[in-house]
Amino acid sequence: MSQCCNHCDCDRHSKTVTGLLERPRYSPGLILQDSDLTAAVDYTRELNRLLFRSLFGCGVICGLDISVEEKCGLQVTVRPGLALDGCGDPVQLPSAVTITLDEKDGVIADDGNAPRVRDFWVTLCGKEKLCAPRAILCDADEEDGAPQATRIRSLAEVSIDFERPHCVCECSAPGERLNDQELDALARQLLRQNDGAYDGLPDCHEDHNHKLDCRCDCGECVLLGWVHWFADGGWGVLHRGVRRFIRPMLIAPDPIEDRAPVGAAAAAEEGPVALAAARRKTRQQARA
């Protein structure tokens, strides 16, 4: 008669793999070191990162839309909002940020000619800063040690890139380097597809669905939008099909309407009036 049961290994093959999470274990009378307390904080942070990037993916949570204004140069403003980067860390922009570009950046059109630079991309990156230094107390017969930071403060950095970034959390990217004409065609294609629905737009989470580790390999920064010069209308901003929302936000269309110049929108297959009507119809159907 076999002596095997559910708790023995005689009829089972298994292999144990070490996980990446580690938490401290305390006991009465244990002398704690700084590494023990730090390990408790690190465990909570790494657990949150793992859950956030696995459940939600990286991308925009709310806000962070872009506007441009030709005033004393070209003013690029990013509204406050919140995003998740590829590591699962939240990146919060608590107040609006405005960056002014001028002639030396090549974005100013003169004499009716197109500007030298016709495209740029806006990204948001999470940073950290050590602060609140405190002196280390030594023995009575020694001087105080060098000050050490006691806090880590989160920062948000808004950047403008004149080459499309290739290592960010984004919705989609061109398969190869595109010239000015190809970029203009792509921008107009996105305008035609911006009818308030996701039909025809790229699948922003296709790469996330096929990654076994559920993380963006190099998505520490989040792409917020693409600013493009339309020859028949001037500067316009593209959000939809460019930036990526976290998973729960995909239950509804991107709430931000792209700001295309009037001439460029009219030159598309669907003019601005038709686009606005389609968006109103979509919102009415959603409320019904």
Structure description:
It is a single chain. The protein is an alpha+beta fold and about 290 residues long. It has one domain. The chain is about 20% helix and about 25% strand. It has 5 helices and 10 strands. The chain has helices spanning about 35-55, 180-195, 205-210, 260-265, 270-285; strands spanning about 60-65, 65-70, 75-80, 80-85, 90-95, 95-100, 120-135, 150-160, 220-230, 235-240. The strands form 3 sheets. A 4-stranded antiparallel beta sheet has the order 8-7-9-10. Strand 9 (about 220-230) and strand 10 (about 235-240) form a beta hairpin. The longest helix has 22 residues, at about 35-55. The radius of gyration is 25 Å and the shape is globular. The termini are far apart. Mean pLDDT is about 80; it is low at about 270-275.
Key words describing this protein structure:
288 residues, alpha+beta, four-stranded antiparallel beta sheet, three-stranded antiparallel beta sheet, 5 helices, 25% strand
What's the average pLDDT? 80
Q: What's the number of helices?
A: 5
Q: Portion of residues in helices?
A: 10-25%
Number of strands: 10
Order of helices and strands: HEEEEEEEEHHEEHH
Shape label: globular
Structural class: alpha+beta
Distance separating the two termini: 68 Å
